[in-house]
Amino acid sequence: MTVRVFFFVQNLLGIGHVVRAARLARAMCDKGIEVTVASGGVPVEGLDFSPAHVVQLPPLKAGPGGFSDLRLADGAPLDDHHRDLRRDALLAAFASSNADILLIEAFPFGRRGQRFELLPLLAAARQRQNNVLIVSSVRDILQGGRSPARRQEMLDLVHSSFDLVLIHGDGAVTPFDQSFPEADDIRDKLAYTGLVGPEAVPLEDIPSHDVIVAAGGGSVGGALLETAIAARAMSCMKDARWLVVAGPYLPGDVFARLDASCRTQNIDLVRFVGDLPQRYARAQLAISQAGYNTVADVLTAGCRSVLVPFTAAGESEQNERAQSLARRGLANLLDPEKLTSAALADVIDKTMRQPHGAQRIVLNGAARTAEILLEALVAQRARPR
């Protein structure tokens, strides 16, 4: 019997969510699941969901006002007409998928601004006669700052509309109640998958660098990149081969400064490499922020790690993740408010002196997600209706 999954994913700012979704989709397909991905963001060039089937919805992105300021691909504000188009396209795609499982990224713990389409999607799933399994897919750590009323709203939706919440983390390292204090109220619906890391591929043809410095998309990583380049000459890794991955969104003037500095120090500088997870596997040290995918890539690779989390504008998720990993000895943390070339060089030296062994964290989150979904579907169908 073929199991069908309908997977809604939305990238509003950056590509982290959709990269993780692609890994999950491929892992589900590897288990024989037929996957339809409803992608709600601006298409990401080169991102591979195959062999999953992708339905591209009319794209939305975040405007200057953040996630509550939804915009069309051309930057125009989302109006009622386009809300209706989106909702109808999503519902039509779900209906044609004949899904056994509805998997929704982030909601109800995020994507509140898209209730106009996600609440009707949940209603459509509940009305289906084949008893659709409804599942939420969330990162290891939620962004903080939500009011008690907002968190209660999340709980109410989980109780009323979801059968399962997949947490893509290791509960021993980042327990869900660390960022969602009410987690105990829904503990019977929670399942940890482990981190969703990259697939294993042969490394023979992957370029080798001793130190890799990266800051995600680059939109907020300029200070880390510049400081790391300056720290090189002060560190024990001053004679090593360095690669700096600036990110596609790093402003042009900052990239020009980096380029000038890198040329004088014989550091390789690129904006983007498609095989960065595999390059980490050939490196001794990674210096990065603490975004979900970056951490998953570095831990899967098994190289040493220095984390400088992004904490501006009230962001708490990266700092919580970095602190949790540092407490477990999985990375060394440098407070971004104390980021100087000398401080970073000291942390590099400390990291390279420390013994380095096997990573004590669950990293097979993509494969485990597919297994949990299949197990949950079997259990649901075995229960009396």
TrEMBL record:
User: What are the recorded GO MF terms, alphabetically?
Assistant: hexosyltransferase activity
Q: Name one Pfam family in it.
A: Glyco_tran_28_C
Q: Which domain of life is it from?
A: Bacteria
InterPro entries according to UniProt? Glyco_trans_28_C
Q: Which SUPFAM superfamilies match?
A: UDP-Glycosyltransferase/glycogen phosphorylase
The Glycosyl transferase family 28 C-terminal domain covers which part of the protein?
262-356
Its protein name is: Glycosyl transferase family 28 C-terminal domain-containing protein
The uppermost taxa in this organism's lineage are: Bacteria, Pseudomonadati, Pseudomonadota, Alphaproteobacteria, Hyphomicrobiales
